[in-house]
Amino acid sequence: LFEQWSSNSKRDLLLLRQIAKNGSSVPKFRYETRQFPSLDVCADVNEDHLELQIVRVVNAKLPSGWQPSDGNIFVKYDFAFPHESHQSGKTKLVAGTNSPEFNEKILLSIKRQSKQLMRVIRRNCLKFEVYQKGGFLRSDRLLGTADCKLPILEQKAHLHESVDLMEGRRAAGGKIEFMIRIREPLGEKKLNLQSEKWLILET
């Protein structure tokens, strides 16, 4: 079936090129919806990596009396795997705004067959802390925290979210946007049906 679709598409493409070359009118066409089996896979990600991309912080609430242009912001992250040695770090510093763009990619190590990893995925969060950099004799100021729940990675290989920054249980103001990719979902492999709009020439 797929070979036939491919052959027909190549034939139609050659015909359209010839029509365009000759300046002829476009033949009648129609659309139909076709379904394809597909696997959720990020083929460019190593199977022993979790790729975290911290995209940006939006409208972080700065200390009273500060202007958005006074922002001097960075983000810390913490991934609770392995238990005995969390993988943590921080982004570069972005100054002059309370809505900094980072677009930083971090490769975190995972072991897909590890029971400990699955416990972390099901019970723990990937944690973020957003800071205003301190000045001379001033310590860094915590602007808000955010948690990324991970159980969805049992069904999906890609996660893209924007999460409210919190101060305890209260909204602190602002959001953090991030993406997570793994090679393929950590649970059982499942074929999904993907629907696509398909153009057919009526020749």
Automatic annotation (TrEMBL):
It comes from the Eukaryota. It holds the Pfam family C2. One of its GO terms (molecular function) is DNA-binding transcription repressor activity, RNA polymerase II-specific. This is C2 domain-containing protein. Residues 31-163 form the C2 domain. SUPFAM superfamilies: C2 domain (Calcium/lipid-binding domain, CaLB). It comes from Toxocara canis (Canine roundworm). PANTHER family: COILED-COIL AND C2 DOMAIN-CONTAINING PROTEIN 1-LIKE.
